[in-house]
Amino acid sequence: SGKVASGYDMVHYGHSNQLRQAKAMGDYLIVGVHTDAEISKHKGPPVFTQEERYKMVRAIKWVDEIVEGAPYVTTLETLDKYNCDFCVHGDDITLTVDGKDTYEEVKREGRYRECKRTQGVSTTDLVGRMLLMTKAHHSNMDNPDYQQHTDNFGKGPKGHSPWTGVSQFLQTSQKIIQFASGKEPQPGDSIIYVAGAFDLFHIGHVDFLEMVYKQAERPYVIVGLHFDQEVNRYKGKNYPIMNIHERTLSVLACRYVSEVVIGAPYAVGKDLLDHFKVDLVCHGKTEVFPDKDGSDPYAEPKKRGIFRTVDSGNGLTTDDIVQRIIANRLQFEARNQKKEAKEMAVIEAMRKREEDLIPSSGSRIRC
């Protein structure tokens, strides 16, 4: 069994991908999640409370168990306590408050493994996108405002760290296959359909999908994701924060979801209901925006008597998260600059060490 420890402040598909890779290295995955106090000490203020973060990580389908309030530094003692053979971390650097490698001890004992960081997503980048209230960012990454902001946000004064910096996410069919369950509905399954933006996949979405999952004995939940342009039509501002490809992975990583329709029609019509043999269509307590022609997108399932409003008991919206981020903006920018500066110092030290080990090839000796 393997263990992964992290803060998982804004849980995004990059973290899910790390956990997917970690699970593939062993049989049983235990994930340690830090407390708010621990994150504040080492990284700055968390966006989500520890309770929200525990729930988010539990909802990721590759996770077998979580450890609440895990220590920031993973020791051999921690690994032994939970019967873990090794721990896994991304190929970036995590440093303690005094600049030491958090995984020094377990590396020394050969009980450390590494997984690849997902290109194109980081909390830094998502925060940058949220702080930019422009309509264009999801369709135009070359937008000068976006570039300027990512430059300010993902770069320190002296250079650019490959870990904290910003890059573009490129979707591939392979990535979707890795995230998809690949399970088809079985006879006796109840096929439940829900649709929406599911932007910045968060605890409000998890609570809703869990409640949807509980609507049947053998649920097969299909999530219809609207294209970016459609989301922008009814949500406005700079929504969606995450593009359709990113939202696809985010939703597929959730243990309550069996399948995703990428670019689902806004109106839940006859064709879709018949094609997927839908038994039940659910929607949360949030407002249902009318279709382009002013009609109710749920008219057909209502006519068939298969529409149900589900109350998740959680009113958190993507808008609320953006507000939390904006409220913490200055602290976030300071946190990222500090993290960047630490990483650049480590890169410089690694470069110096390499130079010391390799004698320069063109040196001549003069007598």
UniProtKB/TrEMBL annotation:
Residues 8-127, 194-286 form the Cytidyltransferase-like domain. Gene3D superfamilies: HUPs (3.40.50.620). Keywords: Lipid biosynthesis, Lipid metabolism, Nucleotidyltransferase, Phospholipid biosynthesis, Phospholipid metabolism, Transferase. GO terms for biological process: phosphatidylethanolamine biosynthetic process. Its EC number is 2.7.7.14. Signal peptide: none annotated. Coiled coil: none annotated. The keyword Isomerase does not apply. PANTHER family: ETHANOLAMINE-PHOSPHATE CYTIDYLYLTRANSFERASE. One of its GO terms (molecular function) is ethanolamine-phosphate cytidylyltransferase activity. This is ethanolamine-phosphate cytidylyltransferase. The keyword Hydrolase does not apply. It is an enzyme of class 2 (transferase). It comes from the Eukaryota. GO terms for cellular component: cytoplasm. Pathway: Lipid metabolism; Phospholipid metabolism; phosphatidylethanolamine biosynthesis; phosphatidylethanolamine from ethanolamine: step 2/3. Belongs to the cytidylyltransferase family.
